[in-house]
Amino acid sequence: MTSRRQFIGSSAAAAGLPGGLRAATTDTTYSSIEARILRRDFRDLTKEQLGTPALILDQEIFEQNLRKMAEQLKANGLSLRGHVKIHKCPEVSKRQIALGAIGVSCATIAECELMVNAGIRGVLHTCQPAGRNKISRAVALAKRDPTTIWVADDPITVQTLDEAAAAARTKMNVAVDVYAGLTRQGIQPGQPALDLAQRIDKSKSLRLAGLMGYSGYASHTHGWENRRKKSDEDLAPLMDTLALCKKAGLPIGIITGGSTGTYNIDAGKLTELQAGSYVFMDTIYRRIGGKDNPEVYSDFGPALTVMTTVISKTRPNQAAIDAGNKAMLRTTDEVKDRPGVRIENQGAEYGMLLWNDGDRDLKLGDRVEIYPSNLDTSVNVFDRIYVARGEQIVDVWPIMGRSGAPQR
Length: 408
What we know:
Layout: H1 4-11, H2 30-38, E1 54-58, H3 59-76, E2 79-83, H4 90-98, E3 103-106, H5 109-117, E4 123-125, H6 132-144, E5 149-152, H7 155-167, E6 172-177, H8 191-202, E7 206-213, H9 216-219, H10 224-247, E8 254-257, E9 272-273, H11 283-286, E10 304-312, E11 318-321, E12 334-335, E13 342-345, E14 351-354, E15 367-371, H12 375-380, E16 384-389, E17 392-398
Helix pairs in contact: 5-6, 6-7, 8-10
């Protein structure tokens, strides 16, 4: 489909169109751009030529984020098993691994399958598989790739996995998921967790990989010192469980958990971090405050935007854009390079930008980039990420979860 701007530009080149409605100088039809992307020809392809809404990744900021995390964790003796729920894009994971990451963390079986299919090793599923469908898929992946790691917080799951793995003549790496403040999952720390770890260790078809404890509430606690206290509080029972396991002589290979918010807090407790949001960053994370800046979490830069087009400009100090509920537009999103511009939802396909200062005026056809509030949900509704250096598109990465396993 040709965008409104492209249509006007090609059909009214001689009309002297104002502002954002300048005539196109090259072939920017939808079909020609798609053909170029398929053959990976990005020469002279710019953001201006893309249909909207579209996900734009600032390559320079993205690479800075990856390097900073890798350097920080190396200095603190932590490994990275970056969470893919943020991006569901093997290209991102491969770049993390190139900088030293030991694998990836996945929230769903489908994500695990997608990453293994992309050649990623060291995949950790952060929720125990339950039900016949997920159990069978988990065992199949474990047989295909012996580096995968699974978690369990219930003896029933351990027994089921042991029986299924035995039937498939394979072995599975299983870590005990220990409660660490997030009530949605995790066996009680202390003796219950120790008993489950011993049960895994004695199983014929399972190997005890270690412990997992995810302090989900600590990740978004406002203020670095408050966040440190919350993480310490939530992980203390996990540390007690670790001591019990070591005293019992159990082989604890990994202690996994953590997040972008606690990347510079969890050293000395965890062996590896499951941070994911740092690669792109969103507006909610930016508001939790950092160690050096109590108001803005500026450790990692905002690299991902949703690019939109102004589609109607009929009233002063407001403009309609072509990103709405379906693009996961939220009032907590922020407009790039336009402080003071507010966002409103206007329906499935439309949003509204509002401002008080007349100097912030926008024109019909202008491109506006928006920082999303929640990376997981925003990325989930798009099929690709356009990688940009300035205005130039330098690569296009598929979001694999959108075209992957038919069974989620």
